[in-house]
Amino acid sequence: MSKEDDKGNTGGWKEFFWNPRTHEVMGRTASSWGLILLFYLVFYTFLAGMFALTMYVMLLTLNDYQPTWQDRLAIPGMMIRPKGQALEIIYNIDQTESWDTYVQKLNSFLGPYNDSLQALNNDVCPPDQFYVQEDSGEVRNNPKRSCQFNRTMLGECSGLGATSAERTFGYENGQPCVFIKLNRVIGMLPGKSQSPYVTCGAKKEDSDSIGEIAYFPTNGSFNLMYYPYYGSRSQVNYSQPLVAVKFLNITYNMDVNVECKINSDTITELSERDKFAGRVSFRLRINKND
Ligand SMILES: *[C@@H]1O[C@H](CO)[C@@H](O)[C@H](O)[C@H]1NC(C)=O
Ligand SMILES: *[C@@H]1O[C@H](CO)[C@@H](O)[C@H](O)[C@H]1NC(C)=O
Ligand SMILES: *[C@@H]1O[C@H](CO)[C@@H](O)[C@H](O)[C@H]1NC(C)=O
Ligand SMILES: *[C@@H]1O[C@H](CO)[C@@H](O)[C@H](O)[C@H]1NC(C)=O
Ligand SMILES: *[C@@H]1O[C@H](CO)[C@@H](O)[C@H](O)[C@H]1NC(C)=O
């Protein structure tokens, strides 16, 4: 009995794949299969078309010169140079190799700010006012020019002075320069009539050890003429303005936690919520063998 059943079963399976009586493959005739294939072909072609059309329309709305969505941070972040893995500058005055890389990094960082290059690439702009170069409607006012930020404006922190201490940005004689930049935000106007400026101080417990600080350019300000920034595609030669902070009398052989922040007449109060907005903190430690 079981033998007979088996035979019947296998016969059923075979018939399912190919039924010679009705000429059906897997329960459908050739024309039925054809219709199904045709249906899916049309269906997927339609989907692909929809996708391409949507993509095309979306790309049309994108602007090559400016991101459609930018974060609405009222206050941009700040960053220091030289910068390693962590935000700290630690070296020993008596060990040249401990500060030599800082000097090398700063020299290559400041290379593009050389006066000769700035004169070649950028404009001398009227100071203390925005350098506005708006597009008129759909007509792009491109390429947009940028303002000169000369390396010599960094004074004793330019790394160009006559003395060896100046050429090592003060690292050699324990009066190091740290450079501060404000993150770029397209279209940002970081002040009204007064240029925003940087001030640095020590965290409370280190306030006796930070010593006097000098700022370059004068007042530690980011001049208004470097704003607004129109994006790297529009302003190809843009030189981000810098503020150099020189520590003149910092206490040796101890950690000093420094915090620098931006002051602006459009920023009333630094938000406590975002601890990176408009400020940067770093650890500075200069060791000296007795
Ligand atoms: C910038 O000037 C310094 C000193 O004159 C020079 O050593 C350096 O090669 C220059 N950098 C560039 C990028 O021109
Ligand atoms: C920058 O340096 C160049 C070359 O020395 C000079 O012609 C130009 O006036 C300087 N620009 C500013 C803004 O000081
Ligand atoms: C950028 O600098 C180059 C010279 O290096 C200059 O020929 C060009 O006109 C500048 N472009 C703009 C938009 O300032
Ligand atoms: C520095 O600040 C003082 C007072 O705020 C101002 O009178 C002076 O013009 C500023 N100097 C520069 C170069 O911005
Ligand atoms: C440097 O700082 C020390 C205290 O850390 C102070 O006694 C000294 O007078 C300062 N020197 C100058 C030139 O300000």
UniProtKB/TrEMBL annotation:
Question: What is one GO cellular-component annotation here?
Answer: sodium:potassium-exchanging ATPase complex
Q: Which InterPro entries match?
A: Na/K_ATPase_sub_beta, Na/K_ATPase_sub_beta_sf
- Could you tell me where this protein is found in the cell? Cell membrane; Membrane
Residue spans crossing the bilayer: 35-62
Q: Which Gene3D superfamilies match?
A: 1.20.5.170, Na, k-atpase alpha subunit
Q: What is its main location?
A: membrane
Q: Which GO BP annotation is one of this protein's?
A: potassium ion import across plasma membrane
* GO terms of molecular function: ATPase activator activity
- Determine the domain of life of the protein's source: Eukaryota
Q: Which NCBIfam families match?
A: Na_K_ATPase_bet
The similarity comment for this entry is: Belongs to the X(+)/potassium ATPases subunit beta family.
Q: What does this protein do?
A: This is the non-catalytic component of the active enzyme, which catalyzes the hydrolysis of ATP coupled with the exchange of Na(+) and K(+) ions across the plasma membrane.
Q: What is this protein called?
A: Sodium/potassium-transporting ATPase subunit beta
Q: What organism is recorded for this protein? A: Alosa alosa (allis shad)
